Structures are given as C-alpha cells and as structure tokens.
Amino acid sequence: MIAGFIRRAALPVITAGALLVIGLLLLWLILARFDGMVERAARAAAEARDAHWAAQIERANADANRRIADQAKAALAIETDANARVRLVEEQLTNMEIANAALPLGDACGLGRDRVRLLPN
Fewest C-beta atoms under 10 Å: which of 25, 59, 63, 105? Predict the structure, then answer.
C-alpha cells in the first residue's frame, strides 16, 4: 500500500521533472540556434564593412595614382617648355656672339653704336 502510494505520488513529480528537462533542453537548443544566427549575422556585417572600406581604399589609391600621373605629366610639360626656352636663349646668345664677332674692332674707346645695338633693351 505504501509502495502504491509512493508510485502514485512520484508519477506526477517524475513526469513534471521529465517535462522540465525536455523544456530546458528545448530552450537550450533554441538559444544555441539563436546564438549561431547572431554570430553569422555579425560575421556577414563585418565582411560587408570590410568590403566597403576595401573599395573606399581602392578608390582613394586609384585617385592618388591618377593625381600622381597628372603631376608627372605637368612636370614633364613644364620641363619641356623650360628646355625650349633655354635652347632659345642659348641660340640668341650664340647669334649675338656671332654678330659681335662680325663687327669691326675699331680704334674708338668704349662701345660703338653697332655694339650698343646688340645689348638687350
């Protein structure tokens, strides 16, 4: 009689305990799955952020390289122009020296009228 009473009294406790264990196991599975979803979402967000900034850096590098190339072209154009001017001045100097050498030396002291004309204004 006591054994039957204990069985009848223990059956609801065992059932409730089993349901509690099953419920806790189900809750743990739900939380584990939710945690996995959060981790995947965080990883995807980090990858998207990294891709965005990598693209930004790539654009900035391309822009900087373009500016460097433009500056190199401008420097080359300036150098070409400067070299042309130097050649022109050297040519003028050579012509002036030739014209000066062609003039008669003369006995007059100082500069003659023809030599003064060779001087720049």
Answer: 105
